[in-house]
Amino acid sequence: MSEKVQDAIPRSFWIISAVALVWNLLGVAAYVMQVTMTEDALMKLPDAERMLYENIPAWATGAFAVAVFGGVLGSLLLLLRKSWAVPVFTVSLAAILVQDYYWFFVARSTEVYGPGGLMMPAMVIVIAVLLVWYSRSASAKAWIS
After folding, report:
1. 3-class DSSP state of 16
2. How far is residue 40's CA from residue 46's CA, in Å, rounded to a whole number?
3. What is this structure's pTM?
4. Can you say how many angstroms the Cα of residue 94 is from the centroid of all Cα atoms in its chain?
5. Which residues contact 104 (CB under 8 A, 6 or more apart)?
6. Alpha carbon 79 to chain centroid distance?
7. What's residue 88's pLDDT?
8. Over the stretch 100-119, which tens digit does the pLDDT of each residue have?
9. Domain map of the chain by residue range?
10. Distance spanning both ends of the chain, measured CA to CA
């Protein structure tokens, strides 16, 4: 990259990229907590919630893994100014949609959590869409290549 393009990258790019990494690392932490939940921890959950967690199929857990690890990889690629961030964020978004399909239409988690259970998944989708958009915008402005 030329020095002129390097100078044209705004400070906000680095802040957004770093915040995206932290956000996605929180997703990895949530994933790790879910897949390492002990029997004792499961038994402490209310029955309806415990049944949700006991019956998660491998494909939904896999989608969760692709979503969060893809988000971390996309964020790192953004920080490294690599255009691969765009397709990686896109795959991460697709995995989020697969995971949410399971939770809302197969497991019907809103019957357990109520309408309030939609807030976090909605926020995750919005942020994922924004990261796809932002990485595409960064690519169009030659901030990443």
Report:
1. helix
2. 12
3. 0.91
4. 10
5. 110, 121
6. 16
7. 98
8. 999 999 999 998 998 888 99
9. 3-140
10. 8
